[in-house]
Design goal:
The complex is a heterodimer. By secondary structure, chain A is mainly alpha-helical. Chain A has eight helices and three strands, in the order αβββααααααα. Chain A has one domain. In chain A, β1 and β2 form a beta hairpin. The longest helix of chain A has about 40 residues. The mean pLDDT of chain A is about 90. Chain B is an all-alpha fold. Chain B has a domain of about 110 residues. Chain B contains two helices and no strands. The chains are: A mainly alpha, B mainly alpha. The interface between A and B is large, with 50 and 32 residues. Chain B: Belongs to the ATPase B chain family.
Chain lengths: ~280, ~160
Amino acid sequence: MAADTGSYIKHHLTNWTMCSTDSGIAFNKACTDAGFWTLHVDTLGWSIVLGLIFLLTFRSVAKKASTGVPGKLQCAVEMVVDFVDKSVKETFHGKNALIAPLSLTIFVWVLLMNAMDWVPVDWIPTVAGLIGQYGLGMDPHDVYIKSVPTTDMNMTFALSIGVFFLIIYYSIKVKGVGGFMKELTLQPFNHWAFIPVNFILESVTLIARPVSLALRLFGNLYAGELIFILIATIGLFQLPVHFLWAAFHLLVIPLQAFIFMMLTIVYLSLAHEDH
Amino acid sequence: MNINATLIGESIAFIVFVIFCMKFVWPPIIGAIEERQKTIADGLAAGEKAEKDLELARDNIKAQLKEAKAQAAEIVDAAKKREAQLIEEAADKAKAEREKIIASGHAEIESERNRAREELRQQVAVLAVAGAEKILERSIDAAEHSDILDKLVAEL
């Protein structure tokens, strides 16, 4: 049983990988040695599908956006947009056409990806396994699919590295290369002798931002998913426990999306500030 | 740690999504929201202004009503005064008329009496002449003695 449980958990936490080998495109176990040039098909697939759901829904509203009495979908979309807009305006006081849409994309996209956590852990892998078994003649144990993209560090780091480059871009754009260097070297101790110390301290601060952003989101969702999987192994008693844990995620899922968005705004607004 | 090329794929997806959102999603929606906010704010302001106008109009009406009432009272007063004056005038006129009528009546009566008296005198003169004729039992030439008769008449 212990071995079964172990392999069950491991199976649920393994991504569907794809890589290119000498004998063409290969999947899963054939890719264990592929190193960096491996793709997580499930993470990419789910995240892009969810991103498209977000963008197409919002785009359909944007196309017919009426300034008069809004429809129900328009109302819902406008509530989200207005919420993001308020969050941005409270924190960021400059003029920037990118930050608000960036925050909206991060918030809704991360929220949708996190929300995949609510789908019971066996549904998608079981369906995928059946398709693999009867459609493609595979061993269902070899069909891997992880449906929550934010439990994949590639996903969270892609977001946070994007934000990190924007931080650097705006720091240099607003303060100039010299200003940015000064910020890195003359703080917190404004003396030439402290330049190396300052540089180390400030670099750590700077690098810690994307790392903490990515790991916070990943850690929360990965842990949540892991607990969901553990709950799924305890038999019939899992139903009430699963319900409680899912209810708790009513808090975790939007909160993590909100924190990611809010910190992005804060970091970018810090990048715009001249000291 | 399982960092691999997925990172690059997701980064590209992220960039594309953000650009799409920035170009085609955010501006129309926020534009619609802001325009509606403006419309609502304008509507509220207009409502407030209308209420103020109404209040002003009410005050205006009150003042006008008060003025109209005062004017009406004034008019009634003037009319009452005029009425009294008219009555007085009419009374005066009537009195004058009455006096005139009375005076003319008196004059008429007087002239009537004078005429009657004159007639009477004539008749008395005739009677006197007749009497004298009878007394004298002869006819006296009336023309010849008219001076005497006239004197007699004047004496009557």
